[in-house]
Design a protein that fits this description.
single chain, alpha+beta, 6-stranded mixed beta sheet, globular
């Protein structure tokens, strides 16, 4: 007789004969999904539960070891505890992507049960085993402290905050997704199970063991004979065996006889009835290889005798033949940099290197696909539903009928750029369509680390000059990126690194050359900052060297050169009225000068929107459903809070309370394409589209109160940031003051007026033109707008970062609750980039696990002061809001470097930095 293991889960006695990780029992057998599977290595803490009152990671405890124990998950917490955490985490802004949050709640609740009045240090220690990649921990620490105060009776739950009767732009908006994320009720793709999809099967790829090897033979016979195996797919089963975000160079599967390009390459896709059978079958697949010498780095890729890793690729309807390993190149020039530098009073030149870095989002990639109509539907975690649809449709050969693929974006457990490319969505879709069964395909944490694109490693040399007074004169640089095995977004990321290498200053002579090289390393692509973290690290470090030559201090030389409204940026664009770089410098001035020899400073700018002449439309439709203005825009909220921002835009335009506004399904079937969550674009680009649709709705509501009938057909309009017109050509009249938050015209009784518009639909498209790179115009408009920032990093006497002052110009602050956590999370990510995070490779094979990536934990964080600057004069679009997601991480690394140089006089041009307390601890580890 099989041994039985009995324990209590949320007050109910449970018995099983299977000895397996408790996390798998909770999720697979009991369908308890608040405990998340972030790593199954005991490293991330997303699966934290209570065992006999103590916080324990469910992935490292087995059912056998749990026997006789009392187990509690978020679902089993007392109701007053659950409500205290919902309110507290929402009130302080502790929730972003949400994947870590149930684990944080359980760690915090265990501490509060032990000590009802915990200190900040106790809270940090209690969550030391839980990783948050979004918030920087500060808001989570504040949330646990507030929850404790509520449970002690010292603070009261403000029910009005979550109810959101006053939910407009600039108001403290309780994020729309807080409750379902705190309580673990929201669904990420991995939370979809057999209850949601009867007959669900499971798929996983057998992946290459070698970064570069010829696949000599593939034998799947034993695996196919295993009972429970649905089938095995190979390259020959794929209609079009290449995908790619912009450039189609990424093999869906490597065919027999072909050569692998990285260790993540899929060879075959195994589909089985259950996960246990799936793992057995994968081990039965026999693949013979001929290992080949890999191309390890940029220098090897450049070599004359280097093997060419790609003969060609397909992009934008054309096949491009390659002669070498250069994937993409860019050349950005203005003025005469060579002449300006020769004539400069002072110049500095320095080589800088930065490493690959891993996004380390908490949720590994997962997708569920099933047959749907005449194609397939994919429920996914990604950064752009229409992008995923395009790539999957291309794989099927359905480029002319992409609607056969429907993509629905579920909750997304963090992205930071790492979920812009398809990873498993296309594999799930292929299996679902081939076998006509629902299929779940997900990556283990190890597979995710090896496979998805990283931040590009950079090797660059920069020369900056100035005149005798310290005014910048010119910049020359060459930026070399390692883009790994596949292009991903090499071109746009390289372009952004080049265009932003000049910094937020006023000089006109630049010569910037950028090259992205194929190697056999894991691919590199989008990452928060989109190439600018690399080039700005170099530029801002150079500025301190130049300041020393001139005889100016680092704050003064930046203030002297800082861009102001009406002045010309180095790319030729005229800085708009909202530009507030100097204001951010003034905000941190006192902190900088208060810590001589211990302070470093750096500035940054970051575009909002795709720009550079590419079409970048925001699209939205609002449909009145059951008396609720339901917002449809196919945009991914990856934790930055754009879904809440959109509802605030509607509340501001229409005067509606939150109970009368909602987000509709984010899918390619029901929502218009509003672009990728990338380029800090959603608040501005989609936000303006939402506001435009909301104005149309508001007009109809006012009309109802004036006795006019409801529209009998959809109402639609479009605008370009200057003028608006209906789609039938009529001009749309709008008073200028309505573009400013707090000055709009509303119906007298919005909640009543909207009920009379049941079933009505209002649509808007926002497309503001920009100029292409190298446009032959005096002052090209490269981007809709820019955000600006200045960070100051303070070291203590031991050389550790004690404080960071992060001053940001992100235009109108749409949600004061959210922006601070965005800034704090960005700062901590930038600190990791500077000091602790690395992605070691040995002959192109990753050597790190999640727990060894060098991620900061809660006890290690400095005191981060998030400061935001709002000018009186703002941009007319999107109520003046600008993106904060990317720029928050850009200035931190150079500010850290400059702080250490002030501290000990040593320049540290390579990341992660050496000869710091953090590097010494890293090497000991």
């Amino acid at each position: 007789m099989a041994q039985e293991f009995t324990f209590t889960v949320n007050g109910v006695e449970r018995t099983t004969t299977q000895n397996k990780p408790l996390l798998r029992y909770l999720r697979d057998d009991l369908h308890i999904h608040s405990a998340k599977d972030g790593c199954s290595e005991g490293a991330c803490g997303t699966c934290t539960i209570h065992v006999d009152g103590a916080a324990v990671k469910a992935c490292v405890l087995t059912t056998a070891l749990a026997a006789g124990r009392n187990i509690v998950t978020v679902e089993g917490l007392p109701e007053d505890v659950r409500e205290a955490f919902v309110y507290a985490f929402g009130a302080v802004g502790a929730v972003q992507c949400g994947f870590c949050i149930p684990g944080m709640v359980m760690a915090g609740a265990a501490l509060i049960a032990e000590d009802p009045e915990p200190t900040e240090e106790q809270i940090k220690y209690a969550i030391r085993g839980n990783v948050c990649r979004c918030t920087g921990y500060k808001k989570i620490i504040e949330g646990i402290s507030l929850a404790a105060a509520v449970l002690r009776g010292e603070k009261q739950i403000d029910e009005d905050l979550e109810r959101g009767d006053d939910y407009g732009v600039g108001k403290r908006a309780f994020r729309i997704d807080v409750r379902k994320k705190v309580l673990g009720e929201g669904k990420y793709p991995d939370d979809i199970d057999e209850i949601d999809q009867p007959g669900l099967t499971y798929a996983s790829a057998v992946r290459s063991k070698y970064p570069r090897a010829r696949v000599l033979s593939i034998d799947t016979s034993k695996a196919e004979a295993l009972p429970g195996v649905v089938g095995i797919l190979r390259a020959e089963d794929v209609p079009v065996n290449q995908v790619g975000h912009l450039i189609q160079d990424w093999d869906v599967m490597i065919a027999q006889g072909d050569i692998t390009r990285c260790v993540g390459d899929a060879i075959v896709l195994v589909v089985a009835e259950d996960e246990a059978t799936l793992e057995k079958a994968k081990k039965l697949v026999k693949i013979d290889y001929e290992p080949l010498e890999p191309v390890r780095n940029i220098a090897e890729a450049k070599a004359v005798d280097a093997p060419r890793l790609h003969d060609s690729f397909f992009a934008f309807g054309n096949t491009v033949e390659l002669k070498d390993n250069v994937c993409q190149s860019r050349h950005v020039t203005r003025g005469d940099a060579a002449k300006a530098l020769v004539e400069s009073a002072f110049t500095v030149t320095q080589r800088f290197t930065t490493p690959f870095t891993e996004h380390a989002f908490l949720e590994p990639e997962c997708a569920v696909a099933f047959p749907y109509k005449n194609g397939v539907k994919v429920q996914s975690t990604d950064q752009g539903a229409y992008d995923t649809r395009k790539e999957c449709a291309h794989m099927f050969g359905w480029d002319s009928e992409p609607e056969r693929v429907v993509v629905e974006t579920m909750l997304v457990g963090g992205g930071f750029g790492g979920k812009e490319d398809v990873s498993i969505q296309h594999l799930a879709a292929l299996a679902a369509y081939k076998f006509q069964r629902p299929v779940k395909c997900k990556l283990t944490r190890a597979e995710s680390l090896a496979f998805h694109p990283k931040r590009h490693a950079m090797d660059g040399t920069f020369t900056l000059g100035c005149d005798a007074e310290g005014n910048f004169t010119g910049l020359d640089c060459e930026i070399n990126f390692d883009t790994g095995a596949y292009a991903s977004l090499c071109g746009p990321v390289l372009e952004r690194a080049c265009t932003h290498a000049v910094g937020p200053y006023k000089y006109q002579n630049t010569d910037i050359r950028g090259f992205g090289y194929y190697t056999n390393n894991p691919p590199a692509g989008a990452y928060r900052g989109f190439g600018v973290c690399q080039s700005e690290f170099a530029l801002e470090s150079l500025i301190d060297l130049l300041a020393e030559k001139v005889g100016l201090d680092p704050w003064e030389i930046r203030y002297r050169n800082a861009i102001e409204p009406g002045e010309v940026l180095p790319n030729g664009q005229i800085a708009d009225c909202s530009t507030a770089l100097k204001e951010t410098l003034l905000e941190v001035k006192d902190a900088y000068y208060a810590h001589p020899g211990h302070a470093g400073i750096a500035c940054a700018m970051k575009n909002a929107g795709v720009g550079v002449g590419l079409p970048d439309a925001g699209r939205c439709k609002i449909r009145v459903e059951n008396g609720v203005a339901t917002v449809y825009a196919a945009t991914s909220d990856i934790g930055q809070g754009c879904n809440t921002v959109f509802l605030q835009d509607v509340a501001e335009a229409c005067g509606l309370p939150l109970r009368c506004i909602a987000n509709g399904e984010c899918s390619t079937e029901n929502a218009p394409d509003s672009g990728t969550t990338s380029g800090s674009r959603q608040t501005v680009v989609t936000g303006e589209a939402v506001r435009g649709a909301a104005f149309l709705l508001r007009d109809a509501m006012v009309g109802i109160e004036a006795g006019k009938p409801a529209p009998d057909a959809p109402v639609s309009a479009h605008g370009d940031g200057v003028k608006i017109e209906y789609d039938d050509g009529r001009a749309y009249q709008l008073h200028t003051q309505e573009l400013v938050a707090g000055q709009g015209m509303h119906p007298q009784d919005p909640a009543a007026a909207i009920k009379a518009l049941e079933g009505c639909e209002f649509g808007y498209v926002y497309l503001e033109p920009t100029d292409k790179l190298g446009a032959d115009v005096p002052n090209p408009k490269s981007h809709i707008c820019y955000g600006f920032a200045t960070h100051v990093v303070i070291l203590d006497d031991d050389g550790r970062v004690s404080e960071v002052y992060a001053a940001h110009d992100s235009g109108k602050v749409v949600n004061p609750i959210s922006i601070q956590g965005q800034i704090e999370g960005g700062v901590l990510m930038g600190m990791g980039y500077a000091l602790t995070e690395d992605w070691p490779l040995k002959d192109c094979v990753p050597q790190a696990r999640y727990g060894t990536l060098g991620l900061f934990r809660a006890p290690e964080i400095p005191d981060i002061h998030a400061i935001y600057v709002e000018k009186d004069e703002l941009l007319p679009v999107a109520y003046g809001g600008k993106g904060i997601g990317e720029i928050a991480t850009i200035p931190t690394a150079p500010a850290v470097q400059n702080a250490y140089r002030a501290f000990d006089g040593k320049l540290r041009p390579n990341l992660p930095m050496v000869d710091t307390p953090y590097s010494r601890a890293r090497h000991r580890g």
